[in-house]
Amino acid sequence: MEQFFLQLTNGLAVGGIYALIALGYTMVYGVLKLINFAHSDLFTLGAYLGLTLLTSMALTDRLGPFWGTVLLAFMVMLLIAIVGALLDRVAYRPLRQSPRLSAVVSALGASIFLQNTVMLVYGARFQVYPQGILPSTAIRVMGLDIPMVRLIVLCTSTLMMLALFFFIQKTKTGTAIRAAAIDQGAARLMGIDVNRVILMVFLVGPALGGVAGLLVGLYYGQINFTMGWGYGLKAFTAAILGGIGNIPGAMVGGILLGVIEAMGAAYLSIAWKDAIAFCVLILILIFRPTGLLGERVAEKV
Amino acid sequence: MSLLSLKRLTKNFGGLTAVNNVSFDVEPGAIVGLIGPNGAGKTTVFNLITGIYAPDQGEILFAGKSLVRLRTHRIIAMGIARTFQTIRLFQNLTVLENVLAGCHCQMKGGVVASLLHTPLQRREERKAIVGAMSILSFVGLHREAQQVAKNLSYGNQRLLEIARALATRPKLLILDEPAGGMNEQETGRLVTLIRKMRDQGITILLIEHDMSLVMKVCEQIVVLEYGSKIAEGPPEAIKQDPRVIEAYLGTDSDW
Amino acid sequence: DPVKIGLMGPMTGSWASEGQEMKQVLDLLCEELNAKGGLMGQKVAVVSEDDGGDPRTASLAAQRLATQGIAAVIGTYGSAVTEATQNIYNEAKIIQVANGSTAIRLTEKGLKYFFRTCPRDDEQAKVAAATIEKLGVKKLAILHDNSTYAKGLAEEAKGLLAGKKGLEIVFFDALTPKEQDYTAILTKMKAAGPDFVFFTGYYGEGGLLLKQKRQMNWNVPFMGGDATNNPDLVKIAGKEAAAGFYFLSPPLPKDLPTQEAKAFLAAFTKKYGNPPNSIYPVLAGDGFRVITHAIAETKSTDPEKLAKYLKTELKEFPGLTGKISFNDKGDRIGEVYKVYKVNAEGQFILEP
Amino acid sequence: MALLEIAGLHVRYGNIEVLHGIDLRVGEGEIVSVLGANGAGKSTTLLSISGLVKASAGSIHLGETPIHKLPAHAIVKQGIAQVPEGRRVFGTLTVEENLSLGAFVRDEKGEVRQTLGWIYELFPILAERRRQLAGTLSGGEQQMLAIGRALMSRPRVLLLDEPSLGLAPLLVKAIFQTLKEINGKGVTMVLVEQNARAALKLAHRGYVMELGRIVLEDSSSALMENPEVQAAYLGGEKGR
Amino acid sequence: MTNQRTIITISLANVVFASLPFFLNTYWVDVLNSIGIYSILALSLNLIVGHAGLFNLGHAAFYAIGAYTAAILNTGYGIPILALLPACGFTAGVFAVLIARPIIHLRGDYLCIVTIGVGEIVRIALINDVFGVTGGANGIFGIARPSLFGFSVRSPQHFFYYIWTFAGITVCLFHLLENSRFGRALNYLREDEVAAEGSGVDTAHYKLAAFVVGAVWAGMAGNIYASKMTIISPESFTFWESVLMFAIVILGGSGSIPGMLLGAFLIVGLPELFREFANARMLVFGAAMIAMMIFRTQGILPAKQRRYSLPESSGEESGTG
Ligand SMILES: Nc1ncnc2c1ncn2[C@@H]1O[C@H](COP(=O)(O)OP(=O)(O)OP(=O)(O)O)[C@@H](O)[C@H]1O
Ligand SMILES: Nc1ncnc2c1ncn2[C@@H]1O[C@H](COP(=O)(O)OP(=O)(O)OP(=O)(O)O)[C@@H](O)[C@H]1O
Ligand SMILES: [Mg+2]
Ligand SMILES: [Mg+2]
């Protein structure tokens, strides 16, 4: 039983990170129907930029761990958002009118490019975050030691997701994003500036990915230039699991995937953990072909 | 025996009953119109016949055989062809290839025959192209045969849909608003075409809101409202039917 | 014409850090050699190719090197990658000295021109088993990462220890490398109740395991294979968590009393600002030194002569990682492995 | 002074030119109908007014403002709304969400609500289906939604591309009636219709397009008397 | 006649290409071999992605199944590797049926993630030495070289002719396949599934068939790869491999056979050309990928419309019967 709860909190924390990254995939996908494979490398870049800022500006020393980290997070979000928008400008915008899969290949190229940029700039070795920025204590809940960091990670990601959810569902810009996701031409006829919407998406999505990178760095302390692939694949899986293009879906998918993995590792086999996660995914999709909260299908014949 | 007969057909979408206990028959060689206000369930009836939706209740018999729960392509192979309310062509393929899609179920060549281009396969292919071209001439599109479908004008796209449907050699052809987006002149040509098809022995069931067309070509009309059949009969009777006038035609007797 | 020595290593991809440092080491040694006048009156040049850490790319890299008139090739890191190139070099009659490929079967094929400066997995497994027995372990957990190397080592050790009296292997499984959260595995392993854990994977995962183990308040001692020999392990885990960690490794240059090792360490640190991070690039350096020594001694780049020299005449060559001799299969002879332990300051201390 | 003035408009798709110099004027408060065979370029003309396709030459002015250089969303802000060909409702949004998107350029919440109420009065069936996904509406229902959505922005100029397409006869009448009323409130309209008789009955003036050119321009009544127009667009016999 | 001209050009190009091993050094010949294998893989994936429009990012799974079938049966039972060619295609095809059947109804990106998942499951299964026959992470070594009538294919030059003969046959067969009822049916379902079904095309059947034919060829490519490398390990069948194949299809111009060959030249060949850039070579490659896609958004050699020679008497109107 103890194992179960430990694995659960563990799965939730990892799932929270998957979900944060998944949101970036889902947002871009929703509007452009593009699987932004480079998103995972923006996540990596977020982790590295976070490290640079952390060590060069000593924010946490000056402002204390809490406010320092918050400020750091905002700076990382800002920087990665800019990179995201640039990426769109350079690699995706010229492909707006072309077949969907062309942009996917461009995204793959961008992913290779970004990953190797990080390698060349920061070196191929592991980089290590300074210790002790996030509290290393555990809190006792019902006789179980649950590390604080997990709660922090889970709370941060949940907060960001909720904020995004309200932004998309309740604000005018959010509605514009959803409309542009369905039919860009019609959206423009409503007076929506589609280019602004896309820019918005490429600011917000990568920003969330960047924050996820920072969280990973702070939480695990170790980052490397190839870490994006693994997280990216998981996050993309999570986005699909929840129903791609669907924001609550990405959250549910991410958290669920984290928990499935943890449970698979705990009760079945560690070595087969990823295979188990993919099997569950396939099973779910066989029975719910558009994911758990999949897009509301509205194709009328 | 009727060619097509619907028996107490019902289809629900969530809480909405789109088709409610509808029965009617289509006799061989007839031209039957299905009319009714928007959202009455006409397209849904077509989708039930062609297996895109499965009915919640009721029976659909085609030449005595039940169509319920058959996959669409099987139903097509049995001799029913359709066009769609919103045009659904293979936009990036040529006009000829669009028609060849209709020929598909007449042909047999499988993977291996295709890989090796066996003589049998080649003969079959030849025959299909000849057939497709004659259908294109029949609807008047043979000059556009090698054009990409998306470059056709709207009216021609509608004709191409009909050509594709004809290529399946249907006994029954069902047309969902074939005249939508056509002007008078084009509608006139469509009327001729429909009659010509009937003369070839094809039974026709059509949905249309253009009453001039419906009253001109249909011999029998079925009227739906809110999913239920409210009237059935020849055009003259339907024109006079007070319920139909109230629900659909309006009092103005322009037609 | 200069004497060309090939270097095949992972310059990109997941193992890029190893390959790039291999190049640093060889560049340094080559410079030093040229400063001393080169070989047979010629300059020496290092020709390096990227194998991407993947067998197919490696086979192309090998073909490419094979056409460039190299006298010998150093590398590469991964066993499967090396294996994909062995035939190519062998058919082209080029001496290959691998530096990180420890899989046993590489030298069991009887290839004439293949050598390696790293010891084999069974060597290491023997030392590991002996150490574990010496420490009086009762319940052992073995964790690998499913890579050729780690799994091979884990299975060898398991084979050697299975059936030993008083020792039970309570856990044997693999983690997925390149992930960051291993608490699920640690939690599961802890439930099996081992009093000692042997982790055969790499330092990145090793550091995280130590760190996360400590976060769970679990105090079981860990031992790693030679792939955990990397100062980054301590950085990743943190000094507190890394303290008390054992690992096996060929002796580090800093622990060698020889002149060569000390000089190399100083020169490397001077040129690149830090001591070498991984032991494998240093082993690549040994490969380079052995080969260039053989060329100097035989005054020839003829592979037959070189191979013969290496197998029969080279004895106790003072390498950067200790004395080097090769047996007939091309394997390095002698007890190479030492046991290290991390102290409270995070330094690697040679166990007596 | 014309409210909307198109001069020498050329439009090309890729390297095929489909409009070869269109001149079209719409006075304030006028309804102008555009007739023409399939593929004549009627929809293209409307799309270029809205800025969804860009002119390769020529100009479009709304009052004094040249709008052919503006992006589509800015043109909507200028008060031009369109009911596009093929309806293009947002299929995975609800009816009500679609309608509120129609009012995207408007800020005053209260007035928007009022307009919404008015639309529901015009098309009661939409009120019934307000929570249904637009994509599952029947063809005619979608057409109503598209018209309602365009009206939500309270446009000065309304561009209608075959608004009667797929609508039941009763409803066609009702919609033309509605358009007349809206026009009475000062909304200027450009109406592209295959149902030429109804269109000319409603419109003040009309244009006839053929193969990307305007070939005829006259008052509606004159066009209805024109034998060529009668033959091509009104049907030889007594049409609808 | 233009037709004759093309035939002459193609034959000439073939002769020039076939003489390449006499001019190039072994390394470049081996690069061409790699390109050949990827051409075959891309051609097979092109059926699934390019023609049927099914988003498959797990093609390496079929490739792996073929390679492992060859390796296991050859090293374990001593069956000649060349004789195993059909067997490899067969197992990969059977695997495709088993896998594709339940997932075939998934649309677009859902199918994509499932194929990625299948690819990963296969790779993980190989690493974990499933059924105890795959050799785990070590893989399988000692695979025999192909030999035909006592002639053994050994050197890269030999493999050049072996691989490119196979690739040539594949090109011819797939060209015929594309220009037939089968090829068209795949296009119909790519364009509009509902309309295809509504025209009487059994869409589920053709989706499955596309997967199977693609898998069969990938399986045979796996056999060739295994015999060329003589050692295979799971590292050669990662997600990255699937990505490469996919990139070849799209970059080359999906649906176009010449596109596949050119795409393979670019995707496999460019990283080799970029060796000059040392550590930055993949960076340059990534940038090149973006640039090529932007300059040729439809792919480098996009598919052309099929042309049919029409019957003479298509002018006058005739009946439908
Ligand atoms: N897939 C679906 N999900 C939910 N409701 C649906 C679906 N398909 C149709 N409906 C509803 O069923 C009713 C009947 O639709 P149908 O398309 O059959 O109408 P129709 O008679 O063809 O109308 P029109 O003449 O406007 O095309 C409509 O109210 C529509 O909203
Ligand atoms: N996106 C496009 N790409 C290429 N050609 C197009 C495109 N859209 C329309 N065309 C072509 O431009 C011409 C004019 O088309 P348009 O849609 O404006 O005609 P229309 O008068 O509205 O006809 P309809 O009555 O069929 O709606 C036609 O020949 C059409 O084939
Ligand atoms: Mg309908
Ligand atoms: Mg139009």
Beta strand count of chain A: 4
Helix content of chain D: 25-40%
Let me know the average pLDDT of chain D: 87
Biggest chain contact: B-E, 59 and 40 residues
What's the layout of helices and strands?
The complex is a heteropentamer of chains A (301), B (255), C (352), D (240) and E (321).
Chain A: H1 2-32, H2 39-57, H3 59-92, H4 100-122, E1 127-128, E2 138-141, E3 144-147, H5 148-170, H6 172-182, H7 184-189, H8 194-220, E4 222-223, H9 227-242, H10 247-267, H11 273-287
Antiparallel strand pairs in A: 1-4, 2-3
Chain B: E1 4-13, E2 16-26, E3 31-35, H1 42-49, E4 57-62, E5 65-66, H2 72-78, E6 80-82, H3 95-103, H4 111-116, H5 119-139, H6 154-166, E7 172-176, H7 184-199, E8 203-207, H8 211-217, E9 220-225, E10 228-233, H9 235-240, H10 242-249
Parallel strand pairs in B: 3-8, 3-9, 6-7, 7-8
Antiparallel strand pairs in B: 1-2, 1-4, 4-5, 9-10
Helix pairs in contact in B: 3-5, 3-6, 5-6
Chain C: E1 3-9, H1 16-35, E2 44-50, H2 55-66, E3 72-74, H3 79-91, E4 95-98, E5 114-116, H4 121-134, E6 139-144, H5 148-161, E7 168-174, H6 183-191, E8 196-199, H7 203-215, E9 222-224, H8 231-237, H9 239-242, E10 246-249, H10 259-272, H11 279-298, H12 303-313, E11 317-319, E12 322-324, E13 338-342, E14 348-350
Parallel strand pairs in C: 1-2, 1-3, 3-4, 4-5, 6-7, 6-8, 8-9, 9-10
Antiparallel strand pairs in C: 10-13, 11-12, 13-14
Bound molecules: adenosine-5'-triphosphate (ATP) (2 copies) and magnesium ion (2 copies).
What can you see in these coordinates?
The complex is a heteropentamer of chains A (about 300), B (about 260), C (about 350), D (about 240) and E (about 325). By secondary structure, chain B is of the alpha/beta class. Chain B has 2 domains: about 1-80 and about 170-255, Rossmann fold (3-Layer(aba) Sandwich); about 90-165, no CATH class. Chain B has 10 helices and 10 strands. Chain B has helices at about 40-50, 70-80, 95-105, 110-115, 120-140, 155-165, 185-200, 210-215, 235-240, 240-250; strands spanning about 5-15, 15-25, 30-35, 55-60, 65, 80, 170-175, 205, 220-225, 230-235. The longest helix of chain B is centred in the middle third of the chain and has 21 residues, at about 120-140. Chain B is globular and about 60 Å long. Chain B starts with a strand and ends in a 6-residue tail after the last helix. Chain C is an alpha/beta fold and about 350 residues long. Chain D is an alpha/beta fold and about 240 residues long. Chain D has one domain: P-loop containing nucleotide triphosphate hydrolases (Rossmann fold), CATH 3.40.50. In chain D, strands 6-7-8-3-9-10 form a 6-stranded mixed beta sheet, sandwiched between helices. In chain D, strands 2-1-4-5 form a 4-stranded antiparallel beta sheet, with helices on one face. In chain D, strand 9 and strand 10 (about 215-220) form a beta hairpin. The radius of gyration of chain D is 17 Å and the shape is globular. By secondary structure, chain E is mainly α. Chain E folds into 2 domains: about 45-235, no CATH class; about 240-305, no CATH class. In chain E, the strands form 2 sheets. Chain E has a two-stranded antiparallel sheet. In chain E, helix 8 crosses helix 10 (about 205-230). Chain E starts with a helix and ends in a 26-residue tail after the last helix. The interface between B and E is large, with 59 and 40 residues. The complex binds adenosine-5'-triphosphate (2 copies) and magnesium ion (2 copies).
